[in-house]
Structures are given as C-alpha cells and as structure tokens.
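Format notes (please read before filing issues)

Several people have asked whether sequences and structure tokens are stored in separate files. They are not. Every record keeps both together, in the order shown below: the sequence lines, then the token lines. Line labels are part of the format and must not be stripped during preprocessing.
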Amino acid sequence: MRFEWLHKIWNSIFTKLILILLVTGICINFLVGAAFRSGFLHHRQTFQQNVIQYFHYLIEDIGTPPSHEKANKIAKQLSLKIRYESPTLNWSTSDSLPPIHQVHLHQWGNSSTIYYGKYHRDNLVVVKHGSGEFLFAISLTLDHKSGREIWIALLLVLLTAILIGAYFLIRKVLKPVKWLSEGVQEVSRGNFNHQVPVRKSDELGQLTQAFNDMTTQVHNMLKSKEQLLLDVSHELRSPLTRIKVALEFLQESQAKQNIHEDILELEKMVEEILETARLDSEYGHLDCQKMNIIPLLEELKSEFSRQCPDILFSEMPTHVFLSIDIDRIRAVLQNIFNNAIKYSGSDKASIYLSLEQLEKYVVIRIQDQGTGISSEELPFIFEPFYRIDKSRSKKTGGYGLGLHLCQKIMEAHQGKIEVDSVLSKGTTVSLFFPPT
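Then the structure lines:
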C-alpha cells in the first residue's frame, strides 16, 4: 500500500509518454552529437594543421630572435600568456607561467613539434621552433568558470521547465482518455445517461462522440425492451382476469386446478414486472419507516419452519432499527428463503440466518447447504428472466425475475445484495442495509 501511488504513476499513460519523449530527446541528442563528432574527426587533421599554422604566425610576429617586447603586445591583444625557452634566451610575459619541463604535455595529433597540456586554470600549447620552445597559455579565469556554471544551471532549469510543460500539455491533450475511463465506469454501473464531454474534433474527440452515441443507442434499446415488457404486462392483466372469472364456472377437476396454478404464476410474474417498473419510475417511491427488523426475521422463521424445520438463527440483538419499506423487504426475504429451501434438496438441509452490524452496513445473511451455483452462472443471476436451469422446469424454479426484483428493492433502499456460492456446497445471500 505504501508504494501504491508510485505504481499508479508508473502505469500512467502520461508518465509513459513523458519517458518516451525523454528517451527520444536523448537519442536525438546522441545521434546529433555523434554526427558532429564524426564530422569533427573527419576534419581533425585539417583543424590541427590550421592550429599549428596559427601558432607559427604568432611566432613569426614575435620575430627572430624572439622579441620579449612584441610578445607582450601580442599577449595583451589576444589575452594570452607567452613564454620562450632556449639554451641562450629565456623570458615570459607572465610570472605565473611555469618552466616548460614542469608541465605534463601530450603530443598534438601526429605533429612532433606541437604539444598541449594544462596548468592550474590555464590551457597550454607548446610549440618547438628551432632551438627553442614557445609556451602559449589561455587563462580560464574565475569569471569564465562562474559563467559556465550559471549556463549549466540555466540549461537544467530550462530542460526541467520543458519537461514539466510537455507533461501538462500531454495531460491536457489526453484528458479525454480520463473522461472515457470515467464514462466506462459509469456505464458499467448501469448509468447509460452519462455523456462524456466532447471538446475537440480530433481522433480522441471522434472516439468520445462514438462512445456517447453507443451508450445512447444501448440505453434506447434497453428502454424499448423494458417498455415492451411493461406494455405486454399491462395487456396481460385483463385477459388473466377474464380467464379467472371463466374458470370459476368450470367443474372442479385436476385440469381446473392446473389452470388456476398457471394463472397465479402468470399474475405473480406480471406483478413483479410492474413492481420493477414502479421502482425505476419517479412514482415508485418507497414507504420507509424506522422499525426493528428482528420481529420480521422471527416472523419469517416461523412461516418457513413448516417447509424447512432446521432454520437456525445465530445469536442476534433484540433491537436493530432500520429505515425500510416493510412490505417490500418482506418480499425480498421471502424470495430468498423460498430459493434456499427449493435448492436445499430433498433432505431439507439446515438454513442459517445471521445478522451482523458493520461500520457502514447492517448485513443479513441467509446461507443454505444446497446445490450451489457455478462461477460461470453467478454473474448473471440478477438478470431478468435468467434461469440456471435451462429447461425452465417449474420444479426447479420460477421464471427468473425474483432476484432481479430483490436487487431493485435493495438498491432503492440505498443498499445492495450479494450472492456467494460454491457448486455442490451451498449459497450465501447477503443483504446490506444502510444504518439509520
């Protein structure tokens, strides 16, 4: 956790682009420097010859025999220090120049008459001329050094400013990527009304517009599907009522009983579809009241004990107050108990009911020891009309709307429902309620 921020920065697309720019700049500078060096080496011999010729011109100006007076004038004009040594004559334009034999010298290229070296802050060039030797010194004063340090510092500041500016420019250009990421998260939560801002007409702007068009089309398709389902449900109520009335005039028989059960199932399906639509609409407000949830759990335990004698309570407090719509929460708990009993098998294995008070939620858990749900099926169990049993037999379940309605009711309470299951071992349904 301590290095999570570092990991986030390292994986950022902005950081990667900055590194790419930095590496690209280094490579370009390296190639340019290599090209200049190659060109310099190619013309190095010519350069050396020109330098040698320059110093020979200076020596000719000093004269033969070398004139100390002329050397002083040249030294002042060119900001040089000059020293001459021979078996018969020695002089220097500066007292700071050492004897030539005290200086460590290197041969200049292939020349046997010119050498170079360094003494304190002076760059030295020694030229052999006849029986004597000339020493030329170019001083690197403190002002030159300070100027060089200031230039290096200024260069570092400018490079840093350029990198920072490049980072923020890249961040601004790629800001639509962040907006798209937020848009994907919103759509994954089911918010198809979310629109990503479109500020530019470049490729990212076109991608953003395409994303907005896609979410709008998906939203319209889902609305059309829901509206069709709602319209069909409304239309089914009238013929179902007429069938029920007509059924009362028939003689009692097994066929009549079967038809009556089918009608009840259809009525329950229509009611759950309409209830789901009401929760999604602006008119489907909850009738929430602050109440103790424990008596409701005790009531449901007694109700379902006739179907499953082993409904076990964990130790619970006597009072847990929640703000809930009692009728709708009762429907949620009844649906989960029915599923737990239905999938517990013929042996009616025990069902465990527990309540836990967390910091952010009050959690009610119902755990069975039934057939369980495979990990492949688990992500889809809240989808409307989704059934694990593809045969859609009445013996193994309803019509796939129960858990979808439970999810809608819990979300309307600002809570959530989660299902954990292991195949052949059982299922745990957890209801999360915000505390009052």
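For reference, the curators noted about this record: The first strand starts at residue 80 and ends at 85. The chain has three domains: 4-144, 216-280, 289-433.
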